[in-house]
Amino acid sequence: MIEKTNLTSGAGLAGIPQLRNFPRCAGVMVFGFGLLVLISWQAHWTRLIQFKNDTAPMQYNTALGFVLSGTALFLLTIRRKRFVPWIGGAVTLFALLTLLEYCTAGNFGIDLFFFKPYFETAAAYPGRMSPLSAGCFTFIGSGIILAGLDNRWSKRLAGAGLLSSIVVIVAAVGLSGYIFGFKPAYGWGAYSSMAINTAIMFLLLGGGLLVWSWDSAIRENFNFVRWLPVTGSVALMIMIAFVSASNMSELQSATDSRKHDFQTILAGQAFEENLIDMQRGLRGYVTLRNTNALTAYLTSSALAPQKYDVLVELTRHDPAQQTRLKNLAVAMREVSAYDTEFLSAYNREGFPAVAQDDESGTGRRVFGQAHDILKDFSQAQQKLLDHRDVAEAADYHNAEYLLVFGSGLAAVLLIIANRMANVELRERRRVEAKLREVSMLQNAVLSSTNYAIIATDSRGIVQSYNPAAEKMLGYTAVEVIGKATPMLWRDPEEVRAMVEKAGRETNQPPPSGVEVLMNRIINEKTGEYEATFVHKNRKHFPVLVSAAALTDAAGNPTGILGVIADISQQRQRQAALRESEQRFRLAFDDGPIGMALVNPHGRFLRVNHALCHILGYSESELRETDFQSITHPEDLEKDLNFVQQVLTGKILSYQMEKRYFDKQQQIVYVRLSVSLVRNPDGEPYYFVTQIENITELKRREIEREKLIAELRESLARVKTLSGLIPICGWCKNVRADQGYWQTVEQYVLSQTEVTFSHGICPDCQKKFKEEIARANGQA
Question: Could you tell me the maximum CA-CA distance found in the chain, to the nearest angstrom?
């Protein structure tokens, strides 16, 4: 199982910038080299296609696979994943079709579909990439598909990384085969071999995808690195097993070839001995007249064609030896013709005739020619055998080196994997110890908390029930754990309404109450709601429930966890608060004097109707301004000074008379009372102001003061008439300061602001009664 690590998400390989840039560079290099090889095939530039003349070339389809894979890796590094899975799918499909061709010995026409190669190197299928290359592209394409999936399934990155690590191992083994001169590591029999440049590109491509997957997994807080040594070791051992099997097959083939060479050499020696027996029998018959020698000659002559046919059959796949055998056949015909003529001459003329013929050297020449050809044939076969022995020994030693190196590397990887597993085991034990400590702390918290904490399984059966729940609900843990569901203490009416609502929403028969509760919380993952619980003594009380779904490591729901608080006292406080707020609202909004809430900067937060009436503004208009804007300039400084003293805590409140400008810019006199409300931290919250309109009172006061001032001035002027005033004794006129005479009325009017009203006193009425009557009659 691949587990998450405690690495912080997003850390990635930030500490190793070279590794972070490697995938992008690898993608660009693989794409560029593949494109160059495609161009080289078109332009007949063989140097990039084939590094050495005796090595396999990079096939056209292989270069095309590198172009596609390099493009996909580059797109991954720049977070353009839209087409990446499709590119990976194309690469995988093409590689699988190639492998299927090898497995079925068929031909689907894909090898020469894009390009027909103009040279090959001992490959049975022109244009076809090697099975090793096809296998690597299958792994790389599958890894690209996983890496390009646009979701948060972190194990897809592990799959991509492990597949790319396999490609790195296969490419490394193939490249080591070129380094050590061990062909089974990069090619099997007549199948196409992996080219040197192909192995190098697979190293870059696999390494780039591996580093990208590793970095991306770490960014998603997931790590699969500890599995890389195991995967690499298994892949290496499998690759070594394949190489060993191929090498054993080739060794078996070499053994069979050596056996065949021995048979050919022995057949050549037998033919040579038969040729000597022919000549020995003929000479023995001619010289000693020994009929047994003649019989031996005739027998050897009859066996010669059979032995020749054996040589032809044994060397039918060797054109050079077949040519020598053709020359041998010609020489043997000459030998046979000479022997026939030699024997006829003896039978006809006797020994002197053949002695004379033998002295000419014709027989030795004919026999020597055939013998030389046989000798050359045997030496060539011996050289071939020696070459096979050398090659077999080299392959054997290279196989030993590869097996030792591969086994050692696999052992090292397994040791690393074991070391990492031990480190993880120690870390897991440490985490388990920490979890036990946390569990003990949890139990202590559950036991001491005032909140009821209840957990259920996926069926709704209670599994955890703390002491606070016992106190709140009246049921003991023994009564409910493993036996009851939360429906035991839920209000039946609420449960019935909840079930009916769920039935209406789903258009299905109503489920049970516990099913509705479980489904709602599991679907919402977490939630908070108020409900009515029923105590064991049947007393109903309100609660606040905070519920969350419990899940396993795979995200499957395993139950729910509820934290319950009794909110009875909170409800009572809320009711009292609402009542208090209602009283305040009535007192504020319907109060007979103006009231306002003002923030510390002077802006009106809330105003009542009386204040709006006093100033002539609407409530919205006042909330858009501040008191500084409507205060008379002569009163503003004094008001702000009081505000500052309240804010600094020098005074708790203040009162003053001031002037406002109403909406018509008329002066409004008010009596202002201000106090400050602070928040729990002691910071100023808002001012509470009471504003009493005293404009009419001020107007009356001003008029009264004016009247008093006028009376005082009149009195002051009246006082100036005291003293000696010259008055005529006869006509009662008064002499002014300028020396002319005036009536008393004129004099008083000039000296004071007194206004006279005229009437007739009672004495004058009696005295001038008749004159008054005549005057009225005339009127």
Answer: 233
Q: What tokens were used for 291?
A: 């009929």
Residue 173 structure tokens: 């083994």
Whole-number pLDDT of residue 8: 36
The pLDDT of residue 347: 77
3-state secondary structure of 487: helix
C-alpha span between 136 and 235 (Å, rounded): 12
CA distance 682 to 648: 11
Spatial neighbors of 251 by CB under 8 A, at least 6 apart, are: 392, 395, 396, 399
Q: What is the 3-state secondary structure (H, E, C) of 109-166?
A: CCCCCCCCCCCCCCCCCCCCCCHHHHHHHHHHHHHHHHHHCCCCCCHHHHHHHHHHHH
CB 61 within 8 A of CB 129: yes
Give me the pLDDT at residue 738, please.
65
**Angstrom distance (rounded) from CA 143 to CA 157:** 8
Whole-model pTM over 0.70: no
pLDDT at 126: 78
Cβ-Cβ contacts under 8 Å for 691 (sequence gap 6 or more): 593, 594, 595, 596, 611, 614, 670, 671, 672
- Are 713 and 690 contacting, i.e. CB atoms less than 8 angstroms apart? no
Q: Compute the chain's Rg from CA coordinates.
A: 61
Distance CA 345, CA 365 (A): 18
CA 193 to CA 149: how far, in whole Å? 33
**Which of 703, 743, 715 lies closest to 727 in space, CA to CA?**
743
> Whose CA is closest to 202, among 135, 126, 127, 113?
135
pLDDT (0 to 100) of residue 536: 87
CA 762 to chain centre: 120
Using an 8 Å Cβ cutoff, are 653 and 646 in contact?
yes
- Alpha-carbon distance of 201 to 184, in angstroms, equals 20
Check residue 86 and give its pLDDT. 92
Please say whether the beta carbons of 258 and 385 come within 8 A.
yes
Confidence (pLDDT) at 68: 94
pLDDT of residue 4: 41
DSSP 177-243: HHHHT-GGGT--TTSPPPPHHHHHHHHHHHHHHHHHHHHHHHHTT---TTHHHHHHHHHHHHHHHHH
Distances (CA, A) of 157 to 22, 151, 160, 235, 716: 17, 11, 5, 18, 110
Q: Are 485 and 456 in contact (CB under 8 A)?
A: yes
Which tokens go with 545? 């429930």
CA distances for 33 relative to 38, 54, 78, 197, 592, angstroms: 9, 21, 20, 9, 91
The count of other CB atoms within 10 Å of the CB of residue 225 is 15
Helix (H, G, I), strand (E, B) or coil at 51: coil
Q: Which of 765, 762, 731, 729 is nearest to 746 (CA)?
A: 731
Which residue type is seen at 164? Answer: S
pLDDT value at residue 96:
93
Q: In whole angstroms, what is the distance from residue 661 CA to residue 667 CA?
A: 5
Q: What is the mean pLDDT of each run of 10 residues along the chain (779 residues)?
A: 38 54 90 92 84 79 92 89 89 91 84 77 73 90 87 73 85 78 63 81 90 79 63 64 63 74 85 84 78 83 87 85 86 83 76 66 79 86 78 66 65 65 70 72 66 86 87 88 87 84 74 77 73 89 86 75 85 79 74 87 89 89 89 90 90 90 90 89 88 87 82 62 64 69 72 65 72 63
CB neighbourhood size of 498 (10 A): 18
Cβ contacts of 552 within 8 Å, gap of 6 or more: 558
Name the nearest CA neighbour of 670 among 642, 691, 700. 691
